[in-house]
């Protein structure tokens, strides 16, 4: 699968600069005392790979002064991506990365996703590594897994609490650090088919929403048309057949009536009045058909408006619950410390930690009470606007209904008047036959017009039914695909977890003297040591480090594992781990890579002076001292 190597790290500014030697495959060590720049070196790499480094921002409470007070400064990473050379360039305080290749001009990628950006840096690099960006649904929130998320199991940062296996997310909150997100990160890096499974699952969720909307519109349309007509419920085939039969009868009657007229000419003026009255009846019937069509269109619009109103009311209810929860528990307060829960005098435009809040970033995880109230008011205003639109449609429907009723009354009056005229005139037997033929013609025309109205309604219904059938078929197909892929992915991840546990157990029992068994759980992929027996805090360094080592070994041993064969380790001597245990843990690098050549993987390790096994001294690439710190003044 994909492979990512760091070949060179460069920092350039008007005041300071740094350029590393060229790194190779295999192990690369940067050693030095605290304060000489080891963590800064790792931060430069992480920043160049699209990560967020708080101390590089001048608005942060604690800043890296050499960098924040520098000007025109940027980080450039020379990398090998699947053995193809690239240079990633990112300016400090910039949210863009320019990717240079040897065969073309640089291409600028934004780091954060927005509605206007079709492709971001994460999409490009994940595609290069053979990993498909997937959309994750968590309740009403959905997000896309980025390359920065996967770095949480590639970059072993200097974590003050190494019991947390994953590197903290750049924007740490209950969504970005949820168990579901952590599981997906592991599955994408280790599993064979999880990328396809999650991408198909996202399509399935969208199609399910589309299917429900199509079904709701169809059902609402059917319900609304039932009370607009009292005719027999027929489908389009039978309606067209019935219409054609009526037209055939009408054609025969017209021929029959014309023959009767030739036999006896009517009394001029009186017959002309009768014809005029009949024409008026036909004209009014045509008007009724047209107004029925307009009425049906209004009913369809009312259906859409009512569904929209329900959706907005549901959103309003959810926001009201959020505001209520906030007032009771202050769950989403931007002015509350997430650790001690005390109120903080937060400066506008800054987080409670002091960092600058970038409002242009795509994701946002909390709002203030005022903002939630403004959103609620906006939603309530939307409901009022929709209600006005519904009222307007109902009023228009009422007007059309009254006009249709008046036209029916007119037709009834014309027919009564026609009947009275005919009674006043003494017809011969031929005249009586003409009367009967005309009555039948009028009746047939009325039936044809009624059928035309039913056909219009049924055609719209058929379109909605066809739309629903198409979407439902796609939904069922995706549902079947999700079930198949889920089964394949579950079987595959179980195999991978078993392989992981074999290596992890071997590494742990050879690293910690009091460890007898080690594995990760199938449900959350987190370590379980000696079936859950408490271990001292210093053991957490080995527990976490062996977890990362096992991921690297899996990627070397199993070709289908998508872990990019790169491991970044920043100063692991934390949590009170003693020197002997640290060296023993680091020595396991030899165990996990002994059957592989250096060109297959890369480990970059920053650590204290000589705080690594003696056999690793040949891998030392940079030695930082008080006289030779990482950043040096620019010439």
Automatic annotation (TrEMBL):
Residues 15-252 form the Rad50/SbcC-type AAA domain. The keyword Coiled coil applies. Keywords: Coiled coil. The keyword Coiled coil applies. Residues 397-454 form a coiled coil. It comes from the Bacteria. One of its GO terms (biological process) is DNA synthesis involved in DNA repair. GO terms for molecular function: ATP hydrolysis activity. This is Rad50/SbcC-type AAA domain-containing protein. The lineage of its organism: Bacteria, Pseudomonadati, Bacteroidota, Chitinophagia, Chitinophagales.
């Amino acid at each position: 699968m994909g492979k990512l190597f760091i070949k060179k790290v460069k920092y350039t500014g008007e005041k300071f600069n740094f350029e590393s030697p060229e790194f190779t495959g295999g192990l690369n060590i940067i050693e030095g005392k605290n304060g000489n720049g080891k963590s800064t070196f790792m931060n430069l790499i992480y920043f160049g790979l699209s990560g967020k480094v708080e101390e590089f921002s001048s608005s942060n409470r604690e800043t890296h002064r050499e960098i924040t007070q520098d000007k025109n400064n940027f980080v450039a990473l020379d990398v090998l991506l699947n053995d193809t050379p690239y240079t990633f360039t990112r300016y400090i305080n910039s949210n863009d990365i320019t990717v240079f290749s040897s065969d073309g001009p640089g291409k600028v990628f934004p780091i954060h996703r927005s509605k206007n950006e079709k492709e971001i840096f994460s999409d490009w690099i994940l595609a290069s590594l053979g990993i498909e960006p997937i959309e994750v649904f968590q309740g009403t929130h959905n997000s896309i897994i980025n390359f920065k998320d996967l770095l949480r199991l590639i970059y072993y940062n200097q974590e003050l609490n190494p019991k947390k296996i994953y590197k903290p997310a750049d924007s740490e909150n209950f969504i970005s650090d949820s168990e579901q997100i952590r599981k997906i990160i592991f599955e994408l890096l280790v599993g064979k088919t999880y990328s396809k499974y999650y991408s198909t699952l996202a399509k399935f969720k969208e199609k399910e929403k589309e299917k429900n909307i199509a079904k709701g519109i169809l059902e609402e349309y059917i319900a609304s048309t039932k009370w607009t007509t009292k005719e027999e419920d027929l489908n389009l085939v039978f309606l067209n057949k019935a219409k054609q039969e009526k037209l055939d009868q009408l054609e025969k009657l017209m021929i029959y009536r014309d023959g009767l007229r030739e036999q006896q000419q009517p009394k001029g003026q009186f017959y002309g009045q009768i014809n005029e009255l009949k024409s008026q009846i036909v004209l009014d019937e045509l008007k009724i058909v047209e107004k029925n069509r307009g009425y049906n269109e209004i009913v369809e619009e009312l259906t859409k408006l009512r569904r929209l109103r329900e959706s907005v009311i549901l959103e309003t209810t959810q926001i009201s619950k959020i505001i209520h929860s906030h007032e009771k528990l202050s769950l989403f307060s931007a002015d509350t410390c997430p650790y001690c829960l005390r109120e903080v005098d937060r400066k506008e435009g800054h987080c409670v930690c002091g960092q600058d809040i970038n409002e242009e970033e795509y994701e946002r995880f909390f709002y203030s009470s005022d903002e939630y109230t403004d959103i609620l008011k906006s939603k309530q205003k939307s409901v009022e606007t929709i209600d006005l639109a519904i009222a307007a449609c109902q009023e228009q429907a009422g007007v059309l209904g009254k006009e249709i009723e008046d036209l029916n009354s007119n037709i009834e009056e014309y027919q009564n008047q026609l009947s009275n005229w005919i009674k006043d005139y003494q017809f011969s037997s031929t005249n009586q036959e003409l009367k009967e033929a005309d009555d039948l013609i009028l009746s047939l025309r009325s039936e044809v017009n009624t059928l035309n109205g039913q056909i219009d309604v049924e055609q719209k219904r058929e379109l909605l039914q066809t739309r629903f059938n198409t979407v439902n078929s796609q939904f069922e197909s995706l549902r079947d695909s999700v079930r198949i892929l889920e089964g394949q992915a579950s079987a595959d991840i179980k195999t991978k977890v078993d392989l992981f546990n074999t290596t992890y157990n071997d590494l742990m029992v050879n690293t910690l003297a009091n460890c007898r068994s080690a594995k990760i759980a199938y449900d959350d992929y987190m370590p379980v040591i000696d079936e859950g027996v408490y271990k001292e805090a210093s053991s957490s360094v080995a527990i976490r480090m062996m977890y990362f080592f096992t991921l690297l070994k899996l990627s070397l041993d199993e070709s289908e594992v998508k872990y990019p064969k790169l491991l970044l380790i920043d100063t692991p001597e934390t949590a009170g781990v003693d020197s002997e245990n640290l060296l023993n843990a680091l020595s396991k690098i030899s165990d996990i890579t002994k059957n592989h050549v250096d060109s297959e993987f890369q480990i970059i390790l920053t650590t204290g002076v000589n705080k690594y096994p003696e056999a690793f001294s040949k891998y030392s690439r940079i030695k930082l001292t008080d006289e030779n710190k990482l950043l040096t003044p620019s010439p």
